[in-house]
Design a protein that fits this description.
Blueprint: H1 4-15, E1 33-39, E2 64-67, E3 70-74, E4 87-92, E5 98-102, E6 120-126, E7 131-136, E8 146-151, E9 156-162, E10 176-181, E11 186-191, E12 197-202, E13 207-212, E14 221-226, E15 229-234, E16 239-242, E17 248-252, E18 257-262, H2 266-272, E19 281-285, E20 292-295, E21 300-304, E22 309-313, H3 315-322, E23 335-336, E24 346-352, E25 357-363, H4 365-370, E26 379-385, H5 400-419
Antiparallel strand pairs: 1-26, 2-3, 3-4, 4-5, 6-7, 7-8, 8-9, 10-11, 11-12, 12-13, 14-15, 16-17, 17-18, 18-19, 20-21, 21-22, 22-23, 24-25, 25-26
Helix pairs in contact: 1-5
Length: 420
């Protein structure tokens, strides 16, 4: 019979590595893909509000974030009617039907009500604070663009910031893109309607800055070839992301250049506003065109339209090989994620969850570019195991393999003690 001391030791040893945030993924295969939501058209759960119009072909998913097993998506309005909700959650009912629910509710989607959401394209979640950051483009008229911070834990609006500078009669030209939030709760919002511009919101003191800088510009206009059609796009900042330590911001333009901005330049940016930045530099060029870059805890991921793929830059590997520091590292490698089975549709925006999965909005882009009102929207939300968490996710530094090895030793010791 085991003594009290032995039982106590067994209990302590067996529980040592049951620590939040230290999940190992030994059973998951790198690149393994599953279709989470197969969507012919967006169907809302329950009845629409009185007077709301709904044109299925205009309801297109663009942005996505996943937090605590809840999937949040944006459905931009682009000034159009027929889109009853611009921010929603998505799930399956008991029969497997995909259903969308307005987030947080229908009143918060009311068009023309300036405290409600008008046209949302991008969102970000801070997993440490449970805050959801929402970039709202406004309606182009009475309701201007704003940043809304929503507390997911308290289920209420935490703050709202009008994206208009003091003294301006109206807002700057806006087409708000990706959001990135640093470890000091400073929010960076890409503005793709004006060359080389960003909105910066310091949420701790409520200050809002509009930064327009020549150093942020790519080529003024760039042809984008999709299947048999050619589209022209201004090469402004559309997609941005931050490194896990918030030291560098990365952005990409339609010319496939990957730019790096050191965040200790923020004060310089705010002082210069317009001009050239010496330390803003191209780290390399992506191999393919795409609509999203996303930093994880290990890699910088790219969604690729040219060949319906996902690739990544192993920045840490280049840092180790080049030995010239973060400010000078050059992108020399780009690795294709071996997705199994392959993507059927073109990948767009992406999100990482706490379990190491990359979520991707995929769709038939011909419908999106041609702006038809077809009922069949042909979209799929998929997740791919990549063993990366969001850039702003706190993880323990102990590696998974090391924890597994130590756990094996503990199990061996426990077995020995149990046999005594």
């Amino acid at each position: 019979m085991r003594s009290i001391q032995q039982i106590t030791l067994l209990t302590i040893l067996s529980g040592i590595f049951i620590i939040p945030g230290t999940i190992c993924h030994g059973t998951h295969k790198q690149g393994q893909k599953s279709v989470v939501f197969d969507i012919d058209q967006i169907t809302f759960d329950g009845n629409l509000p009185a007077g709301a119009s709904y044109i299925p072909g205009r309801n297109i998913i663009v942005g996505i974030k996943v937090h605590k097993d809840i999937v949040y998506v944006t459905i931009p309005r682009h000034g159009q009617t027929g889109i009853p909700a611009t921010l929603a959650t998505v799930k399956k009912d008991d029969n497997g039907k995909v259903l969308f629910s307005p987030f947080p509710d229908w009143p918060f989607q009311e068009m023309g009500k300036c405290t409600a959401l008008q046209d949302v394209r991008s969102i970000e979640v801070d997993p440490k604070t449970d805050l959801l950051y929402i970039a709202d483009n406004g309606n182009g008229g009475s309701c201007g663009p704003k940043l809304v911070v929503y507390d997911l834990a308290k289920k209420e609006v935490n703050a709202s910031y009008e994206l208009k500078l003091e003294g301006d009669k109206k807002s700057k030209i806006n087409n708000l893109g990706d959001i990135a939030v640093d470890n000091q709760a400073v929010v960076y919002i890409a503005n793709s309607n004006k060359f080389g511009s960003l909105w910066i919101v310091e949420t701790k003191n409520g200050k809002v800055y509009f930064v327009e800088n020549h150093g942020f510009r790519g080529q003024h206009f760039k042809p984008f070839v999709f299947e048999n059609d050619t589209y022209w796009s201004n090469s402004s900042i559309k997609t941005i992301t931050l490194t896990p330590d918030s030291k560098f911001l990365f952005y990409s333009t339609d010319d496939r250049n990957l730019w790096q901005v050191p965040m200790d330049m923020k004060k310089q940016l705010l002082n210069i506003r317009v001009g050239e930045i010496k330390d803003n530099r191209i780290t390399g060029q992506k191999n393919f065109h795409g609509f999203c870059i996303l930093m994880g805890t290990k890699f910088l991921f790219f969604s690729n339209v040219d060949n319906k793929s996902i690739s990544y830059w192993d920045r840490n590997s280049d840092l180790e090989n080049q030995k010239q520091g973060e400010a000078a590292v050059v992108k020399e490698n780009e690795v294709m994620v071996n997705i199994q089975p392959r993507l059927e549709y073109f990948p767009g925006k992406m999100a990482l969850d706490e379990e190491g999965y990359l979520w991707v909005v995929t769709m038939d882009l011909s419908m999106y570019f041609n702006e038809t009102d077809n009922v069949d929207t042909r979209m799929k939300i998929v997740k791919i195991f990549v063993d990366n968490q969001p850039y702003n996710y706190e993880v323990l530094t102990t590696s998974c393999s090391a924890r597994m090895f130590m756990s094996a030793i503990i199990v061996f010791i426990c077995c020995l003690l149990a046999s005594i």
